[in-house]
Amino acid sequence: MLITRASEYAILSLIVLSKASAPMDSETLSTQLSIPKSFLAKILQAMAKHGILKSFKGVNGGFSLLLEPKDIKMLQVIASVEGKAPAVFECSPSMYSCPSGKAQLCSLWPFLNKLQGKIDSFLADLTLADILE
Question: Which InterPro entries does the entry link to (predicted)?
Fold first, then answer.
């Protein structure tokens, strides 16, 4: 699981919200992006809970960016909607916590661990501002 549909929808929503002059409700966003409203609402609430979006209640309610695009890191966005950091494979981050107990025999683990580190670093540095350029 690297980037699922939930992560894709979160990033697309952030792009639209970054260009909005006022908070947007989930229904407007779901129509504009052709995303099921109930699925999108959960994604938006998760980002609000993790300090990426601000949620407004009431008639003129909706969502807006809580942070500047330069301060919204893609690693944080993905982790907020997925409930965990993105992973190349469901492989243990440590040889010593390998569920099979055979990490020392696994020739893929060193490669996957190095790849995961590069992906984590890239996503930790990639901001919404970079995507908007």
Answer: Tscrpt_reg_Rrf2, WH-like_DNA-bd_sf, WH_DNA-bd_sf
Asked if pLDDT for residue 42 goes beyond 70, the answer is: yes
**What is the token pair recorded at 73?**
């890191």
Is 107 exposed, middle or buried, given 0-12, 13-18 or 19+ CB atoms closer than 10 A? exposed
d(CA 119, CA 25): 32
CA gap 79, 76 in Å, rounded = 5
| pLDDT tens sequence across 81-95 | 998 888 877 776 677
Q: Which domains does the chain have, with CATH numbers?
A: 5-132 (1.10.10.10)
Write the CA distances from 114 to 91, 93, 94, integer angstroms.
12, 10, 11
Write the CB contacts of 24 (distance below 8 Å, at least 6 apart in sequence).
16, 17, 62, 63, 64
Encode pLDDT of 18-30 as tens digits.
999 999 999 999 9
Confidence of residue 41 (pLDDT cuts 50, 70, 90): very high
